Amino acid sequence: MNAGRRRSVQQKLIGMVLVSTMAAVLIAIAAMVLYDLRLYHTGWIADVTTQAELLGRTSGPALAFDDPRAARENLELLRYRSEVRAAAIYDAKGRLFASYAPAAGTQFPSLPEGDGVRVEGDNLILFKRVVGESEILGTVYLRTSYALYNRLYGYLGIGVAAGLLSLLVAYALSRRLQRGVTEPLRAIGAVARKVSHERDYALRVQKLTPDEIGDLADAFNAMLAEIERATAGLQASNRELEREVRERGRAEGEVLRLNAELEQRVRERTAQLEYTNRELESFCYAVSHDLRSPLRAIDGFSQALLQDCAPQLPADGQRFLQRIHAATVRMGQLIEDLLTLSKVSRGELTKVEVDLSDLARHVGADLAQREPGREVEVMVWEDMRPEADPRLLRAALENLIGNAWKFTSKAEHARIEIGCLRDGRRATYFVRDNGVGFDMAYADKLFGAFQRLHSESEFSGTGIGLATVQRIVHRHGGRIWADAAPGKGATFFFTLAPEVDASRERDAVAA
Amino acid sequence: MAAVIARLALWTALCLALPAPWTQAVAQATDIQVKAAFLYKFGAFVEWPQQTFAEPGTAFTIGVLGADAVAAELEQISAGRNVHGRPIAVRRLKRGDLVSGLHVLFVGQGEAARLAEVLRAAKAQPLLVVTDAADGLPEGSVINFVPVENKLRFDIAVATAERMQLRISSRLLAVARKVVPG
């Protein structure tokens, strides 16, 4: 867009007109000049040849009858032809017979040449034989001016003058006429610039001429109308989109706020619950702990009464004391279990690699020692080494294996199996027995404290064991569940690590 | 052309180098040659009536009376030349010979006195009579040779020519020394 180098359409049009005018004028002048010069050349040669022929005819008798005077008189007539610079007649033997020259000191060729015309500079030289009845009488020599170059220079002058004049006229005319082309173009250009600067698509070009430029203006206007329409549509849809985005943002903000509120509430509730739980647990622990000393007193004094005052007591009294003793033993057991449950919930969890197989065998051996009369086959799988707290794991196994031991007391061939099912990296441990089992309809009550599926008279127990086991498993992040049927034994499954998300597990395997 | 120049140079040299009687003889010789040349050249500028050339092959006949040197020269130069497209025949005439069939008759100085007699015999036919009279154009002669300043010129009697039914070209008249009308 360098203004200095840019040439406007106006200049181009004028340039085109000037160049074509100049070309036309030059070609026309050149053609005319060529034609004229050719005409001059041939005409002049014909003229001079005719002159020579005439001279030859009239001088024929003079030559024939050796009369140079008559020949000279004939030549003298050439004085009316100012173009003739020299004329001569040679006789048959080549001698100069008669001559004529308007200027003094004119040189003549010493010998004539054959018939011919030639141009030497600005001279036209012609030799023409004079032929009689049957012989050559002599030769006519003519030297005339040859103004071809003078004419050419004259024409060049005229050509330059005509060229300049036509250029001038063409320039003046085209300056006026080109406005009909450039004005509509300029109008379109001005509107186009204004549109691109101001983004005002409502502008229109005025159609000035009903030609191609007018069509261009129409097309431009149609384009502008199209752009205006499209822009309006685009703006409307943009506004709609913006509104939607705003609304969505607001809704999202609302959701986030609600979520945060909910989380806050959950945190608050959890904290409250944890606090209440801890309160309850410590209360439970304190109560259990404090209940032990009065119980010991009751037991101790009832024992003392039975040993020291047995003779004074009637049989009923002794039986009642026995029953008090049994109740205190059971209550002591209850308190121990409650304390265990509390301890399981409290205290630090220290995870190390534990040999579960070894632990299970020890528990089984302890039970066998406590009841030597029973025949129970305890089968423990080898090489089970989970990461767990050894103290808590031992408590859990004591409870589970103890339950199995207890509920197989009526079985003919009591059998307890402790094993492990591996599924990828997840290990699920189980304790299976072939005891009385239970109805799965009550499975949801299994792990609640003080929930019993069998009567005290049938199987002894406090109803706290499975609650303790569940608490231990939960503290390890694991899960516990049971599978059983009445009379067909029971199996308790548990895990000791948080269950890895299935997809995360797949990723780990792939890695 | 070179041969012509060489001959010219020779001629000039001879003229300058030879003693007076020799040059006179040479001058006489050239005079005869010029007269002979003129005689046959006249034919080209004169028109004869059609009947004088009865047959297509009829020769252009020049009669010479009383000028044997001219006749001899004429015989020599006319060989192979044409007048009006016809071959040239030269006839030497003696006193009393008929002039019928002639187109040109040259009467030499020796027979000038007998001119009238000769012309009477020729009266009936178109005949270009050429004379060599020193004292002007004789009666009945069409062309008479006149020496002027070492050159041979001639006078023409147009009226006589018309009587003889001859048409003489104006170009010939243009080179005549004198044209005598009537």
CATH architecture of chain B, by name, is 3-Layer(aba) Sandwich
Regions of chain B with pLDDT < 50 over 5+ consecutive residues?
13-19
Number of distinct helices of chain B: 6
User: Based on DSSP secondary structure assignment, what is the total number of beta strands of chain A?
Assistant: 12
Task: Spell out the key features of this protein.
heterodimer; A: 511 residues; alpha+beta; Beta-Lactamase; Heat Shock Protein 90; five-stranded antiparallel beta sheet; 10 helices; 12 strands; 58% helix; 14% strand; rod-shaped; B: 182 residues; alpha/beta; Rossmann fold; eight-stranded mixed beta sheet; two-stranded antiparallel sheet; 6 helices; 10 strands; 38% helix
Provide a descriptive summary of the structure in words.
The complex is a heterodimer of chains A (511) and B (182). Chain A is of the alpha+beta class and 511 residues long. Chain A is built from ten helices and twelve strands. Chain A has helices at 9-64, 68-76, 148-177, 179-198, 212-308, 315-345, 356-370, 390-407, 465-475, 502-510, and strands spanning 84-91, 96-100, 116-120, 123-131, 136-145, 352-353, 376-380, 387-388, 414-423, 426-433, 480-484, 490-494. Chain B has one domain (30-180): Response regulator (Rossmann fold, 3-Layer(aba) Sandwich). In chain B, 38% of the residues lie in helices and 24% in strands. In chain B, helix 2 packs across helix 3 (68-78). Chain B is globular, with a radius of gyration of 17 Å. Residues 13-19 of chain B have low confidence and may be disordered. At the A-B interface, helix 1 of A face helix 1, helix 2, strand 3, strand 8 and helix 6 of B.
Chain-wise SSE layout:
The complex is a heterodimer of chains A (511) and B (182).
Chain A: H1 9-64, H2 68-76, E1 84-91, E2 96-100, E3 116-120, E4 123-131, E5 136-145, H3 148-177, H4 179-198, H5 212-308, H6 315-345, E6 352-353, H7 356-370, E7 376-380, E8 387-388, H8 390-407, E9 414-423, E10 426-433, H9 465-475, E11 480-484, E12 490-494, H10 502-510
Parallel strand pairs in A: 7-9
Antiparallel strand pairs in A: 1-2, 1-5, 3-4, 4-5, 6-8, 9-10, 10-12, 11-12
Chain B: H1 2-17, H2 20-42, E1 46-47, E2 60-65, H3 68-78, E3 82-83, E4 86-93, E5 104-107, H4 115-122, E6 128-131, E7 143-148, E8 151-157, H5 158-163, E9 167-168, H6 170-175, E10 178-180
Parallel strand pairs in B: 2-4, 2-5, 5-6, 6-7, 8-10
Antiparallel strand pairs in B: 1-9, 3-4, 7-8
